Amino acid sequence: MEPFYVLISTFLQVLLILTCSVDASPTGYRHIANIKRSAAELAESYDYVIIGGGQSGLVVADRLSEDGTKTVLVVEYGDIDNNKDILLPSTGAASLGRDFFNFSTAVNYHLNNKTFAIQAAAVVGGGSAVNGMLLDRGAAEDYDNWEKLGNPGWGFEDLLPYFRKSTTLTLPNKELQQEFGIVEDESAYGDGPIYASYPPWQWPGTKAQVNAWKELGVKSPAKASSGDAVGVFWAPSALDPRTWTRSYAKTAYHDRAAPRDNYDLLTKHEVLTIKFTNSSTHDPLPNNSTSTLRATSITFRNRGTREVSTVSANKEIILAAGTFHSPIILQRSGVGHFPLIDRAKIPRVLEVPGVGVNLQDHAYMTRQYDYNTNVSPNPDMLDRSSPKFNQTFYDWAQAEYTNHQRGPLTVATANTAAFLSLNTAVANTDTITSSTSRARSQISLPGTYTTSLRIGFNMQESTVLSSLSSPASAALAIPFTGKSSSPLIMLKPLSRGTVSLDRAAPFETPPLVDFRTFYHPVDLQLFIEIFKFSRKWFEAPAHRKLGPVETAMQKNAVSDAQIELLLREKVLPSSGDAVGTCAMMPFNRGGVVGPDLRVYETMGLSIVDASIIPLIPGAHLGATVYAVAEKAADLIKARA
Fold first, then answer.
1. Rounded to an integer, what is the distance from CA 508 to the centroid of its chain?
2. Is the bond leading into 511 cis (omega within 30 degrees of zero)?
3. In 375-492, where do the E strands start and end?
4. pLDDT value at position 9?
5. Which backbone phi and psi does 605 adopt, to 5 degrees?
6. N or C: which end of the chain has fewer CB within 10 A?
7. How far, in Å, CA of 88 to CA of 18, rounded?
8. Is 594 in contact with 584 (CB distance < 8 Å)?
9. CB atoms closer than 10 angstroms to residue 254
């Protein structure tokens, strides 16, 4: 989750772009032959065709192309961004104009009828190229819940080997560990291509903020990365310790695959459809299916010339276009809820009602305080929009990073956060978890929900409500950096949104995204309670040493009714963590893929991105998506 406030607060680092001595890529365009710009450069067919060169797509492409006898093509909407600023820690704000899709949400009735910009990356590397780089993991219960929904082999212990496989840990020096109390479970990491590192700098104010949580009785788990992710703890960033630059899917996975003759990456092309044939093969059918529908090729369009081309897959088409685009590619291919497909005048292929529903994200707001007696130095001194901006300190920080790759500009958005269970914030969790009825929760669902989707949601609702009452699962998060304002994030929403094609122009317009924030009655009540609880943190003795003063608008929100009005105005529906629109669940409960990640009733078609996640974990998505993609690659290789 990378709230806009944390991205914008680092926009000041853009000036560093012109002077940064770090190369934009360890390999750059050294292997230019593998980067294709037109369909004419491609082979007629590949063993594997991957739709989307984002975070998950590049992981799977790298792993599949390790076998030199298998050919792999990745088709990506965006381009490789070789600008140096993309590698600077937490300069996602600098990329907002060039590396993101440009579309907005539907009007959100419960957020004062506003629309919001969508955070969806359009660049090689996907979200890993533009996010805030935090590599925390959810609690074990978050992933065990996936298994409870009917997905054997997808619990935390099943995913832990893939969390390890994807990452290599670098701890800070002993002095920094002791000064800030940084504790990490080294056994939770391996020797993977993504560097999970702690920067050589931390803001001194974080010590007071951590101590304030401890004064409230919040524990500091020693093994947060191994599933005990409830409490106040440190987490590494996706940071290459050799250069203190962003470690992401492009540098870690694509650059490793690029020298291989069996790997091609086609950029700046939009995938339109997946084509199917009726197959007479005797291959084992996925998910106990009786279908003979096989995905055999894709159509795609050059974003410049608009020329449409086709390429075939000998073994499998792998959908990795992300939570917003994977479902609309299926819908444009005739796979989805038939009433929607019919209205778009698209030929029917396969009815899968779960395509494009079950959308979840981490809604958040910024808790706005000022510090009257903050310690020096502090992040506000680098923020040109702050009255406490200090030009001398800014110049020093820039020189430290440019000349020595050290200092405060090695820090991404945050390495510290409180991930709190609901019973930490609320004395009696039943006041929230029992504040709904089955009838009210059913009314909160989109009108397009079929019986199977409602059955699936009922299972999800029961699972989430159980976790909200559990001390082993986080319900809210407050990341912090020593800055006076911090995001307040709801981790376990029950509202469910939708993603669908525009029936008027399904091949020309972006997806229609409706987060439906606060449609479920529990979500609003939960946010009211965590808003009230967050004040206790700022009022704790250790925190008071920094002189926190709540801004007027938020200070005046005292009663539940006043807080509700504030939330409807200030809450944003997305932290950039959207999941769930092609959920991994049983088909008769609204699922799109099974535990093998193959689309129900098809052969040769799988999905490997965040859209398959059935319930959003209480964490930023970066580490989880790497683990899911690593596991997906093993599943695909096992059936090759």
1. 26
2. no
3. 416-420, 476-480, 486-490
4. 41
5. -140, 120
6. C
7. 12
8. yes
9. 28
* Sequence ranges of the binding site for FAD: 123, 271
Cα gap 95→601, rounded to integer Å: 40
- Residue 170, H or E segment: strand 167-170
The DSSP 8-state label assigned to residue 13 in this structure reads: G
Query: What's 17's DSSP letter?
Result: G
Element (H, E) at 463: helix 451-468
DSSP state of 467: H
Q: Which ranges of the chain have pLDDT less than 70?
A: 1-33, 90-96, 279-291, 435-440
Tell me the C-alpha to C-alpha distance, in Å, between residue 320 and each of 282, 452, 455, 480, 632.
27, 25, 27, 32, 11
- As a whole number of angstroms, the distance between CA 285 and CA 298 comes to 21
- Quote the pLDDT of residue 427: 84
* pLDDT of amino acid 535: 97
Q: What is the Cα–Cα distance from 335 to 449, expressed in whole angstroms? A: 16
Collapsing DSSP states into helix, strand and coil, what is residue 60?
helix
Q: Please give the full DSSP string across 114-137, using - where no structure is assigned.
A: B--B---B-BTTGGGGTS--B---
Cα–Cα nearest to 460, from 591, 573, 578, 330 = 591
Q: Given this model, what pLDDT does residue 96 score?
A: 57
Q: Are 111 and 568 in contact (CB under 8 A)?
A: yes
Give the tokens for residue 534: 């967050």
Contacts of 478 (CB under 8 A, 6+ apart): 367, 417, 418, 420, 486, 487, 488, 489, 534, 537
> CA-CA distance, 163 to 46, in Å (whole number)?
29
pLDDT in tens, 226-258: 999 999 999 999 999 999 999 999 999 999 999
Bridge partners of residue 359, in order along the sequence: 497
H helices of 492-620, in order, are 521-539, 541-544, 552-555, 560-570
Task: Report helix, strand or coil for 208.
Answer: helix
For the annotated binding site, the residues are: 123, 271
The tens digit of pLDDT for each residue in 9-65 reads 443 343 333 333 333 343 344 456 699 999 999 999 999 999 999 999 999 999 999
Residue by residue, DSSP assigns 89-104 as: TT-GGGGTTTSB---B
Residue 221 region by backbone torsions, left for phi larger than 0, else alpha for psi between -120 and 50, else beta: beta
112, 569 Cβ separation under 8 angstroms:
yes
**pLDDT of res. 119:** 87
Sheet containing 231-234: give its strands across: 231-234, 416-420, 476-480, 486-490, 364-367
Residue 57 half-sphere exposure toward CB, CA atoms < 13 A: 35
